[in-house]
Design goal:
The protein is of the alpha/beta class. It has two domains: about 170 residues, Rossmann fold (3-Layer(aba) Sandwich), CATH 3.40.50.10950; about 150 residues, Rossmann fold. Helices cover about 50% and strands about 15% of the residues. It has 16 helices and eleven strands. It catalyses: acetyl-CoA + phosphate = acetyl phosphate + CoA. It is an enzyme of class 2 (transferase). Belongs to the phosphate acetyltransferase and butyryltransferase family. This is Phosphate acetyltransferase.
């Protein structure tokens, strides 16, 4: 006998609905009525957020690698999409020739600044900001031959709102001038980095995967707090998993004890952040495993922010996920600086650069709104 109700048998349908209505336990449902649902940030939603938010108030973003082909294409794309006002550093003719080689007609209102012409005016500001480190005019002149340093001075002086570099420079080349000139923001003890990992159905945040080799417990706690705040700024509700090789009290040892201490510090400094650890990656990311290994955790199986115990683990994990699962990563985004400076992977695509420029613009918007 079929247990299906024919589509035209409304009487039996009403009986089924009435039965369910009479017998269902409504108490658990009533507890959640009126409570906001925690939505997952999907990759399309994240991309839309970056572009639409950046468009609200286009910021001036300096690109020190101005003659690099991908950077030129990204600057033109940002102009067309009204994401940001890009400033290209480099020789004008070299930049125009590189654009022509890609069949790009560079918009005439995209600003091009020739470092050879303007570098001299930044010598004294660099001497002043680095005088306690023995900076002299001659040394400053040599330092300013590096476009990244020159762009960083432009940011320091408020001529631009953010800086994006790294398409042909190492992370150290991008971060060093920022640490020397921009320096850490008030209340920040360190600079860290975060990657936005665009998984198939959700955006996750990984940190620190680029800056701090061996953070101690206090530094690891600061990285977790910075990253939770960054996640929230970009529309991702932070559930922070402090990653280790064991979950809860199942393991011991110097490394896992460090993660346990860092977790306690986050809870004491910022009780508003949902954090748990130490926690294995599978317990943090897979709901069935999380329920088994940490059944009472508000984070297990639902983590959106993953804090790795050291750079070796973080960098290896992000690259393994990126390459093995063909996942797009946006970043590294630097956290803890007075003004936004962001790095690129040297394998970055034009699209990667565009999204990093948008991300930098959003950071700059927040900074401008708070001053």
């Amino acid at each position: 006998m079929s247990n299906k109700v024919p589509y035209d048998d409304t009487a039996r349908m009403e009986k089924v609905v009435s039965y369910v209505a009479d017998d269902i336990d409504t108490a658990p449902l009533l507890l959640h009525i009126g409570q906001p649902e925690e939505l997952r940030m999907t990759p399309p939603a994240f991309r839309h957020f970056l572009i639409s938010k950046a468009r609200e108030k286009p910021m001036r973003i300096v690109l020190p690698e101005g003659s690099e082909p991908r950077t030129i294409a990204a600057a033109q794309a940002c102009h067309e999409k009204k994401i940001a006002k890009c400033v290209l550093l480099g020789n004008r003719q070299e930049i125009l020739d590189a654009a022509y080689a890609q069949n790009i007609t560079l918009a005439p209102d995209i600003e091009i600044v020739n470092p050879e012409i303007v570098a001299a005016k930044y010598i004294n500001p660099l001497v002043q900001v680095r005088k306690n480190k023995g900076m002299t005019p001659l040394l400053a002149q040599n330092e300013l031959e590096d476009n990244v340093m020159l762009g960083t001075l432009m940011l320091y002086l408020g001529e631009v709102d953010g800086l994006v570099s790294g398409a042909i420079h190492t992370t150290a080349n991008t971060v060093r001038p920022a640490m020397q000139v921009i320096k850490t923001a008030p209340g920040c003890a360190l600079v860290s980095s975060a990657f936005f990992m665009l998984m198939p159905d959700q955006v996750l945040v990984y940190a620190d995967c680029a800056i701090n080799p061996e953070p101690n417990a206090e530094q690891l706690a600061d990285i977790a707090i910075q990253t939770a705040d960054s996640a929230l700024q970009f529309g991702i509700f932070p559930r922070v998993a402090m990653i280790s090789y064991s979950t809860g009290d199942s393991g011991s040892g110097e490394e896992v004890d460090k993660v346990r201490a860092a977790t306690a510090l986050v809870r004491s400094k910022r009780p508003d952040i949902l954090v748990d650890g130490p926690m294995q990656y599978d317990a943090a990311s897979v709901e069935s495993v999380g329920k088994q290994k940490a059944p009472d955790s508000p984070v297990a199986g639902r983590a959106t922010v993953f804090i790795f115990p050291d750079l070796n683990t973080g960098n290896t994990t992000y690259k393994a996920v990126q390459r093995s699962a063909n996942v797009v990563s946006v970043g590294p985004m630097l956290q803890g600086l007075r003004k936004p400076v962001n790095d690129l992977s040297r394998g970055a695509s034009v699209e990667d650069i565009v999204y990093t420029i948008a991300l930098t613009a959003i950071q700059a918007q927040k900074l401008n709104d708070s001053t």
